């Protein structure tokens, strides 16, 4: 049941194309994240949906109604701006109440809803302050409250949690998710924090240079990135460039003279390929064991896990292991690396096989 | 110790030239004018060495002077009002223009400042004269010619032209500081363009408008060239009145008394206004 649809939407600023041919279908009540590096066109895409930027090409429809040229004040969407865009001359409570006032919500109900929204973002005691008297994170939460309070059918959030500390951010993510579940608000959130995108969304849209390059559920995106960029942007990964070799029934990738076995589709021998393996899929064994020998170059303690960089004959590999309460291999000590061949992904080079 | 004393004297040394300048060119002449205004004057013998407050009493009791004061106040207030009514929308449109046009129009607005007020005023007197362009156009369409030159209308028209940049520039500066997304935020919350302007943009530019009004009012109330050239001999404003007292009547003490009264009146009005502006600024911007 498509609720919000973008069909071939593009935006050009002069000769520069900020968004190129984006098509996306979002269901009612879905939580979708737009993920991508800075300047890839996330804000522009969001503002086209909000009606603040007019698409050069394409069509946007909401609930079966074409809204491509509709004025922003008739769309009734809740928007959180990247720059917050709070009204500087109004108090926090007046800022939050503005949307309700425009909707002619009676005074008593308005006060209640504003109080509720401020409670939600934990700013009840700040109702009478002006935006300039707030910290960056507090302003951001006012912006979130102002968008939530009008109970819009679609929420467009442009990096709504970027300025919050880890704990508060987690709580706000939980709240957004709860509201979306409870009220069924369709939510589109822009972020460049991949962990946030993966943890909170039903689907993640990856954008690169104005294009949508992959749309998938977080788990599938992480496990089956469609290109090398995504595999390194979404989570960490080890990328290994080599050539495909075939010997009867077994096949392997030749990385600078070292053969790494990988389960693979039909790829012709001699094709250049890129292999990708996630740090957490690699196991650290004693020296001599495993598939690859190496030496720990450095080691970082991240609390719940250890992050190693290991020098191997095929280059530096990043490996992470869970913290099991005992100190792992020290810097400089020789180790063996092992993994299950199923976890070795082939990302470039399979285009030829698919064709 | 040495370093300490030099840091202590540094502010004085730095402020010195400015203070000297201010003292020499503003305070001293002002003090002399105040003293002059209390000197007695006699038509046959000139300035006497006796002191009197009679000039002040003459000015505040004589209907002739009071009328000129009221006229000055009226013209300055009207000019300020019209400048705000034209200048604020002008600045808003300007700030929403795209770049080549924005620069062009900004130049058009600021350009007149490069031309001497006297030259521009002569331009207006040619346009507004009985055989000027305006009257010729009126006659062409079949209307009777109207007398504009040497009326308050002519003075207000020319003053608005001269003062407009002083209104546009502070408002434009205030608009530059406003995040355009703030207006967009109001739209997404359901406000129409007009409501967004009224509720969100206007309160932000009020401060610029108020400071612009202060400048326009002050300059209009003390304007000389425009009333001198467009008001004629009979229609005087205070600046031209002071000029006449000094140079035609040669009654310097009376001229000085008028000048001081104008200064005090202007100061009172502007300080009161400024307090209002500041109170408002505290409420909206801090
Ligand atoms: N008004 C504009 N005129 C010209 N170029 C623009 C304009 N707005 C955006 N761009 C360009 O379009 C591209 C996409 O901008 P956008 O703001 O959508 O990026 P983003 O993905 O939101 O980045 P970030 O994560 O840094 O916020 C950028 O390269 C930007 O320079
Ligand atoms: Mg952005």
Structure notes:
- Chain A folds into two domains: 2-231, 3-Layer(aba) Sandwich (Rossmann fold), CATH 3.40.50; 236-347, OB fold (Dihydrolipoamide Acetyltransferase, E2P) (Beta Barrel), CATH 2.40.50.
- Chain A has ten helices and 20 strands.
- By secondary structure, chain A is α+β, with helices and mostly antiparallel strands.
- In chain B, 78% of the residues lie in helices and 3% in strands.
- A two-stranded antiparallel sheet of chain B has the order 1-2.
- In chain B, α1 crosses α12 (252-284), α8 packs antiparallel against α9 (193-221) and α9 packs antiparallel against α12 (252-284).
- Chain B is globular, with a radius of gyration of 24 Å.
- The mean pLDDT of chain B is 88.
- Classes of the chains: A alpha+beta (355), B mainly alpha (286).
- Chain A binds chain B through residues 50-52, 71-73, 75-79, 81, 83, 85-89, 98-99, 102-103, 130, 132-133, 146, 150, and chain B through 179, 181-182, 184-192, 195, 199-200, 203-204, 284-286.
- The complex binds adenosine-5'-triphosphate and magnesium ion (MG).
- Magnesium ion binds at residues 42-43, 82, 158 of chain A.
Within the CATH hierarchy, at the fold level, what is the topology of chain B? MetI-like fold
Order of helices and strands of chain A: EEEHEEHEHHHEHEHEEHHEEEEEEEEEEH
Alpha carbon gyration radius of chain A: 24 Å
Output mean pLDDT of chain A: 90
What is the CATH architecture annotation of the largest domain in chain A? Answer: 3-Layer(aba) Sandwich
> What class do helices, strands and sheet pairing of chain B give?
mainly alpha
Query: What fraction, in percent, of the residue positions of chain B are helical?
Result: over 70%
**What distance separates the N and C termini of chain B?**
40 Å
Query: Strand sequence of the main sheet of chain B, in spatial order?
Result: 1-2
The percentage helix of chain A is 25-40%
Largest chain interface and its two residue counts? A-B, 27 and 20 residues
Q: Which consecutive residue ranges of chain A, at least 5 long each, have pLDDT under 50?
A: 350-355
What would you call the shape of chain B? globular
Number of helices of chain A: 10
Number of strands of chain A: 20
CATH topology of the largest domain in chain A: Rossmann fold
* Overall number of domains of chain A: 2
- In the residues of chain B, how many domains can be counted? 1
